[in-house]
Every structure is written in C-alpha cells, then in structure tokens.
Amino acid sequence: MKAWFGVVLVLGLASAAAADLTLVGVPIEPIGVGDTVTITVANSRNGAYAGWLEIGTPDVATFETAPKFTEAGDPGGASLMKYWPQYGAWYEFTVVSFPPNPAVEAGDHIVVRIVGLSAGTTNLNLYDSDGVTLLDRCSIAVVPEPTTIALLGLGGLLLRRRK
Fold this sequence. Notes:
This protein has 163 residues and is an alpha+beta fold. Helix content is 20%, strand content 41%. The protein has a single domain (20-155), classed as Immunoglobulin-like, CATH 2.60.40.680.
C-alpha cells in the first residue's frame, strides 16, 4: 500500500511539473536588416493557458505582423491575441477552445515573425499570464547587410583622405 501511494505521488508531481511554454526555432546566427526570423511558442501539455510576448528593444527588431495561431493553438477558433502599443511591443495571448471540443493539445501553438530594423541586439521575451514571470527568452542580433558596411567603409576612407 505504501509503495502504491509513493508511485501515485511521484506520478502526480511529475505530471504537474511537465507544463511549460518554450520558444522554438530560436536563431543562432544574426539576421540582417530587413530579414525575418520565425519563432514558435510551444506548450508541452494539454489545456488552455495565457501569456505575453514582448520585444525588448523594438527599435532593433519588431513583430513583422501580429503573431498567428496554428491549428493546434486555436482548435475551436476562440483563442485571442491582443496588441498593447502603450507598453511598447507587447502582445497578450490566450490559447483556449470554446466549446471544449476539440481540446487544446500539446504542440506548437503560436508563430511569431520578427523583422530586423537596425543594427543591435534585442530579446523576445515570453511571460506567464501575470506578465511578470519570465518563462523563456531568446536573443536576436541584427547586423547591417554587407553593402551598408562596405559603403560605410568607403565613406570613412574618403573622409580620411580629405584630411
């Protein structure tokens, strides 16, 4: 009896700890100005949830379009995405199914497309529904395209030559 209780307790704790939201497809290489990167919000468990997406420095990179739900992230057509411009580059989302069939199942739920605007580094932050608890973060480096670097170099040479 004690062994059975221990097994049930361990399984219960393991299933409660398995729930998490993560960013998938995080870029490992810098992107160029005007280039777009696609990142996915994935959930490892079934059921409805809510959260926030934020771009830390919207002058460096910003949302190309509003984040989109995948079929798994909007099975009943009731999931919501709301833009909050007064806070900078923030989106609040709710992944839900109403009526409850089909249910929200684990998988890739939201597709985020980010475009580089100027050279620098920014973060895509994924927050819990409270908007404070950071669940995941990815860094996005934006570099100027090679022609811009070449033109800046030529301009520098011309200025130096004039002196």
